[in-house]
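Per reviewer request, we include the raw input and output of the structure prediction for the construct analysed in the revised manuscript.
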Amino acid sequence: MLGSIAALGATATLGLTQVKTAALNMATPPLTQAEMTAVDTAMGKKGKYVEAENTYTVPLPRNDLKVTVKGEAVPISFGFGGWVSVKKTMDGKSAVLMSDTVLLEEEVNPLISAAHANGLEISAIHNHFFYEQPRIFYMHLHGMGTVADLAKSYAATIKNNKLFPANQPSVTAPTRTAKEIFDLPALDKIVGKTGAVNGATYKYTIGRDDQQITAMGAEMTANIGLNSWASFAGSADAAH
């Protein structure tokens, strides 16, 4: 039986508006290959395009950190990775960027200043965990503009932080993945969803497909941050 706790999270977004589907029969325009390449170039890392949501996401793990929860080491994939996502507004006239950044206490104020200097705004600063060491803060950023301009602004914002991919150390794969550690079919049956294996972590990300929510003219979906999540790490008998 699984013991202890799972990491739980909910992503914050700004200016959310519930929209009646009948009044808004339009789909988010897709990103072009040139726009996705602009993001890759600015970040120095390839992202992933989710066609069902027309959203492009670059993961930003903090592999430079060694994190414990209640004194026990946990993998970075347990909940200590940030991300940046872009998608177009529903009218196709602009694009929206949203990001969740994983920061040490002393990194919060410098990143606020860098974001403002590069035309981005802060939508939330909060914690996800209790009892973690070092203390970790999560800061959400957002902006509007062209995809290329947003990518350049975001890259300039984080270039002096460990978040920036070029500033991250190389990592080795874990000796055992979550597929070997946990009974995944049993977990999926309990949760009623299929999770995703990320190294030694198994994570559920649950969006709100029953709602149509907009922010800054863009539809908010799971891959741009409108989701709740739960992660499992550790062992089958002593899980976090």
